[in-house]
Amino acid sequence: MTPTQNQTIIEVKTSPTPGSSYQVLVEDGLLTKAGSLIRQHPALQGSCVILSDDRVAPLYAQSLTNSLQNAGYAPKLITVPAGEKSKSMAILEEVCGQMVTAGLDRSSFLIALGGGVIGDLGGFAAAIYFRGIPLVQIPTTIVAQVDSSVGGKTGLNLPQGKNLVGSFHQPALVLADPLTLRSLPPREFTEGLAEMVKHAAIRDPAMLEQIPPAWTPNLAPIIARNIAIKAAIVTADEKETTGERALLNFGHTIGHAIENAAGYGKFLHGEAISLGLIVALQLSRQLAGLSAEDACAVQQTLQRLGLPLDLRPAPPPEALLASMRTDKKFSAGQIRFVLLRRLGDAFLSSSVTEPTLLEVLEQLRAD
Ligand code: NAD
Ligand code: GLY
Questions:
Q1: Distance in angstroms between the alpha carbons of the first and the last residue of the chain
Q2: Other C-beta atoms lying within 10 Å of the C-beta of residue 165
Q3: Distance in angstroms (rounded) separating the CA atoms of residues 255 and 275
Q4: Among the atoms of ligand 1, which is closest to the Cα of residue 83?
Q5: Catalytic residues
Q6: Which residues pair with 337 in a beta bridge?
Q7: Of 148, 202, 237, which is best to mutate to test ligand 2, by the most ligand atoms within 8 angstroms of its C-beta?
C-alpha cells in the first residue's frame, strides 16, 4: 500500500521469510476505511472475526463491521469482559471455541479491536488457532497504538504472574486510528503517555516537549513518530535476542514490580511505569553518569503530563524486590536494568545490585 494524503505508513520487517514485512497505517478515521484496506491484503481474503471487549465494542464494533461488510466480509463479533482478567487461559478457550462455532478455518483471520489486552489475547488466539491464522490489529488505546500492536508479542497471564504464556505472532496489518483515543477516560489517556515518555528518553529526546497532556486533534503525527521508534527497534531485534528490544523495558523492571506487588489495578500500567522511570533515572544518575539536567527533563515531562512521581504510595522496597525475583527480566539471579548514559542513549546493564536498588528506592521514598 502507498500512503494517501494525511496517512502515514510504517513498515516493520519480520524474519520468517527473508524480506517479509507488515505495514502499520496511522490516520484519523481509519476505522471506517478498515474493510477496503484489509481487502487489499492477499492474506486477508477469508472469513473473519472481530475480537473486542465490552467497553470498546459498543463504541467501535458497529463502525468496523459496516466497513467490513461494505468490503464483502461477514464478520462475527466476539466480546470478552474489559480488563486484564481477560488475558487468561479460560477466556482464550472460550474465544477459540467461538471461532470454531463461527466456522473459521485456516484461511480465516482475526481482527483485534481494543487495547493491549485484546491485542495480546487476540494475537495469541490467532497464533494457535489452526496452528496460526493471520491477525489484524486495530489498537484503540495509546499503549496499544504506540507499543503492543507492533512487534508481535502476544500472551496471557497465569495465576503465578503476568505474560507468562505467549508467542511471537506478527500481525499482517495494523490500523491505528487516533480518533478512537478520544473516548478514553482521562486517567487511561494519561497512563498511555508513559510509553511515549519512555520512547522519548531512549530514542527521541526532542519529543519530550511535544507529548500532549490530553486528547487533541492531530495526534496522528506523534502516534506515528512513536510507532516508528518501536518499529525500528523490533525490526532490529524481532525476538529480543540481541538486547536491543530489551531497551523498551526502560522503567519497566520496577514498573512491573509495582503493579505486581500492589495488586493489579491499584496502579494503572503507565502509572507504575512512570514510577519505574523515576527509579531508572536515579539509577542512571548513580551508575551510568546521566546528568541531573537530563534526568530532570524526563521528570518534568512526567509531571507536566500528570503522571505520578512519588514512590511513597507504592509498595515498600523489600516487597518490590521480592516481586522482581519472579519477573522474566530477572534472569539467573541478576537484575537486567535498562539505564541511560544520556537522553537517547540507553543500554542494558547487569550492574544494578540489590543493595544499590534498595538504597535508591529508600532514598526516593525519603525525598
Ligand atoms: P486495556 O486493553 O485493558 O485497555 C484499558 C481500558 O480502556 C479497558 O477497560 C478498555 O476496555 C478501555 N478502552 C480501550 N480502548 C478504548 C477507547 N478507545 N475508548 C474507551 N475505552 C477504551 O489496556 P492497555 O493499557 O491498552 O493495554 C495493557 C495490556 O497490554 C497489558 O495486558 C500489557 O501486558 C499489554 N502490553 C502488551 C505489549 C506487547 O508488546 N504485546 C506491550 C505493552 C503492553
Ligand atoms: N513492549 C515491549 C516489547 O514489545 O518488546
A1: 53
A2: 15
A3: 6
A4: 3
A5: 131, 153, 195, 230, 240, 245, 249, 252, 256, 269
A6: 349
A7: 148
pTM (two decimals): 0.95
Distance CA 7, CA 26 (A): 6
Q: Which three cell numbers stand for residue 124?
A: 495469541
Ligand 2 pocket, Cβ-based, cut-off 6 angstroms: 147, 151, 153, 245, 248
SS3 at position 176: strand
Residue found under cell 513498515: 11
Residue 204 phi/psi, 5-degree rounding, is -150, 70
User: How far does residue 263's CA lie from ligand 1's centre (Å)?
Assistant: 17
Cβ pair 157, 8 in contact under 8 A:
no
Contact 196, 209 (CB under 8 A): no
Tell me which residue has its CA closest to atom 2 in ligand 2: 248
Atom of ligand 1 nearest to the CA of 150: 40
Q: Alpha-carbon distance 95 to 230, whole Å?
A: 29
- pLDDT surpasses 80 at 295: yes
User: What does the pLDDT look like over 61-98, one tens digit per residue?
Assistant: 999 999 999 999 999 999 999 999 999 999 999 999 99
Q: What is the mean pLDDT of residues 310-321?
A: 96
Q: Are 56 and 184 in contact (CB under 8 A)?
A: no
Band (33; pLDDT cuts 50, 70, 90): very high
Greatest Cα pair distance, the chain, in angstroms, is 62
- Say whether 62 sits in a helix, a strand or coil: helix
